[in-house]
Structures
1.
Amino acid sequence: MGDLGVLPDHLAPHTAAVDALGELIIGGMRVSELVRQYGSPLFIYDENHLRTRMREATEGFGGGRVIYASKAFPSVAMARLISEEGLWWDAASQGELEAGLRGGVQPKRVILHGNNKSFDELRMAIDAKVGRIVVDSFDEIDRLDYLGGSASVWLRITPGIEAHTHAYVRTGQQDSKFGFNLANGDAHRAIARVKASSHLMLSGLHCHIGSQVFALGSFRDAIDVMVTLAKDEGVEELCIGGGFGVGYLRDERVPTIGEWTSWLREAFVAHGMRDQQTFIEPGRAIVAAAAVTVYTVGVIKEIPGVRTYVAVDGGMSDNPRPVLYGSGYEAFTSSRLFDPHDMTVALVGKHCESGDVLVREARLPTDLQVGELVMTPVTGAYGYAMGSNYNKLPRPAVVLVGHGQARLIARRETIDDLFRLEVDG
């Protein structure tokens, strides 16, 4: 990767480089040229990074099946890459299911998730002949019985594992809106009911203990519980979900996706599970570090003795994670990466909210100027996907870069786009 100046290697996309003047290059394209062509704010994804992470996941997991958790970034272009690299597609809504199918993912490689699937979503999945439907509740079994038609299903189990992560992204504990509780017997009752169905085939069990999990022991505990249940019930397939933590900050060093998947495979093998029986669902670990978001500085406001605020042309509408979870990010000037970043500022957005803070203590050059480009790395997951039009801001454009070329995969919204659903005026 070479010398990236103040940008740590582990936060940079795979093809990141810095030219002699200190400007960031991704996929052979200068960031400033991409902004000139596509505007600001701008999401820039490194295609080589995405493909490399997919291959590391599949190689690490051996013959097991790797399912991309599309909620991290559910674009049609991403589905096309997933299809080309031979991964499966995890959809949690009709829209994510449609994105996968439009991107060319074979229906048999699609998994439908969701804790409150509508009749329309279930009917679409059955008609499309998706590979698996992950059943989340007794009400959903009722809906599938009503619709008829054959379907291969997994049952989502809450195994009672308390993952050490933010409460909002913790999903495997007993008190959860997801899945069938193991401790109170619901899981066993659901298994018996699906086994008795004339048109549902119980192919496997599924669990997901949370997102941004760093403790390998949490996954080991989940595997221990789920393998025991699967063997007791004579169920063949087992998916342990995803949620592998990634590093967002300078001092966060975490296992690579290849290390994660190799470790999980070994844990399954130790329990006598064959590769073809096992599934995992990485999302963030594939896409997070593949992208940076580039903003333009609009205001620099110094309050002596208090704080300096640097306001950019985006904010919580393109990255709500800091507001939702208190998530940490770093910031850098994309054209001066060899310059010292020794001024501490609050990097904020342009929304009418005091909480619209992207990086609470960002380090940027002391002579930062209005009009300069500032980027936040590791924004490929849950940025664009969770974005909004708050304050009627148009969504940014998204480009995919590689081999010295850029491809627009989501155009920037226009003012007219903001009103396309309104029926008065």
2.
Amino acid sequence: MNHPMAVAQRLVGILLMLFSTTMLIPALVSLLYRDGEADTFFISFCVTLAAGIVTWLPVRAVRRELKLRDGFLVVVLFWMVLSLFGAIPLHLSSMPALSITDAVYESVSGLTTTGATVIIGLDGLPRGILIWRQLLQWLGGMGVIVLAVAVLPMLGVGGMQLYRAETPGPIKDSKLTPRIRETARALWMIYVGLTLLCALFFWLAGMTAFDAVSHAFTTVSTAGFSTHDASMGYFDSALIEGIAVVFMFIGAVNFALHFVAWRSASPMHYLRDPEFRGWALLALGVTIACTLALLAAGTYTQPGNALIKSAFQVMSIGTTTGFTTADFTLWPSFIPMMLILGSIVGGCGGSTTSGIKVARFMLLIKQGVREVNRQVHPSAEMPVKLGGRVIPDPVIQAVWGYFSIYMGVYAVVFMILMAIGMDEISAFSAVAACLNNLGPGLGEVASNMATVPDIGKWALSLAMLMGRLEILPLLVILTPAFWRR
């Protein structure tokens, strides 16, 4: 059997078996803290491993060169299947005792690094459940597929097509090292190194070892889950907020840039990258505007306090992380909306963030300016440039196509939420929070998504998956042309 579905089935089986091993980590944590949830994770491990074996066995002998079309199918199937199996411990656990809908929503939110939770009472949850939520986000941050690409070649499976289907942004068609396995390993070495460094700084700043590791998982991955209902505000520490700002910023930068800068031991590669410069200037400008607005409104009277609160919230929302240290929904009204709209832009391509990405945003602006100038000089040649390079028109068209599809998906999910009874502000921000993999919203979803009806949670779960996969891979496999031989 050499049908594309057989190839996808074999890979999903292998990846499920690999994923099952991650459930042993929270099982060990549960044993260490004696929270009573070790059996939950052991059962989940057995179920996931068995499902992987059953999926893999019938097609274990299938051998065919992996094509890009197969890559799209495997990536979409795996993220959907992964979300379902990631929900098993959350559903089986007596705390927080989630329904199937809520467990799947929480799992999708974790793996897509959204950070929008339906759980109330995080401070009292078993440590095993808490670390599982954080681990899901950490795995989703760089992309489980990229991790698998580093391992699959040893199992006789090529990985470049998976890498191209999974990895968004500028590094989609380029390899940092000659072999794709080495590329994936290089990215993960950087990712793991940054996580360990972040955990060390959090611990030195006063967090417990458990909280330091947990929050390092979700800071570097720009994800946003916390082990406390008050999020980062629980620690009430300007130093911890400052450390989080630095590592959220690092997580929002193209990891290809991190690799090149590390390999050459020169930070100049960052400054030469137009997307990095655009992202840094945007973050700085919004932070200054937010700080001045908070001081003018009297929300904070000390400039230093206003600056750290602004910088943290701007970086948290702008990188689609979603941590909070203050109830920013009570700030002057234009600030929360400005931050939510800013999450649509997100961070750099090839980073752990979501949103439409800074490079696309810059090209949209440049194309808009070009169209205005064309009204004055209709016959003039006006190439769009980014970083001194002329951007081909097909790329510009692809960006516009992506943006139009993004807005269409946004409108559809927004209308679904309105139809089930949510108010305009809550519905608008809930879609932004999920499609941009952000987390917090406004109105009734400012603190959590527990009040959203089940139909809305399924719609938002799909929006989170589309946001994580940058919409197109999911839509591609739904087209009749994809299934034609």
3.
Amino acid sequence: MAWLKTLTIPASLDQQTVRTCLQTWLVPKRIQGQLRQGHRIWVNALPASVATVVHTGDQLRLQFIPSDFRTPTSNYLPDTTGTADILYQTADLLVVNKPAGIKAHPNQPGEVGSILNYLAADLQATNQAPYMVHRLDQMTSGAMLVALNPIVVPILDRLISSKQIHRTYYAWVRGHFTTTTGHFDDPIGHHPTDKRKRWINTVDAQTALTDYHVLRTTAHHSLVQLDLYTGRTHQLRVHLAANGHPIIGDPLYDDQFSPAIPRLFLHAWRLQLQLPFTGEAATVEAPLPVSFKADEQIEGY
């Protein structure tokens, strides 16, 4: 098994070395070294090295093999009992609109019924496979990023960690805020007594930053836009609950939770992407679920 990637050198990399190109594209150093050692680099169909100088319009061809990657194969079982709503797709990635209540990925060998299982079935006809990059909690809906080959998985991971991929959420929460905009910067770690939960200012807490903007209110609740700048487990749920505004329908953090509430009212609304290799920007939005627009019904929760 091998993956071939042919890239046209842009004007911004004219007269640069192949090494500089790979660094610019965020290809990990370990993989750069394996491409070099394996003589798996060509420029305009001729064997090349990482020291080869390239010019605008040159065709750089790279051959990747399984040993280059920590997770070379996608082993999600295809499941045709459901399908995935794809919002955006390129040769390297896609953004899917995940429904609330559906797992992002299976947790056990042989498990099906997740978005990754549905994508595995949907992509079979194109000889592609899904690779997990960006997870959403089972109860959260909205835009979720998925890689289509192992080449871009470490690149997307780096773009996320360096904040070059930005995530924006909507949530219905309890109560009213004293200011229309603000931020939470409480560090988040493991809850001291409940293994299922996270909480602020614990002994193992790590830096966490969330911005909020109040969009509208009802008598007792607020719809907020949330911009995520770090990726701690349950970050939005914890930041809001710890500051007196738990997300409606959160079974872990909402003291007024009831099984009658149909869902966790958290939706991944927008992904602002930087595309691998090209650096082009793309903004993908997942339509707001109908349940988010029913203010009077939400007020009853």
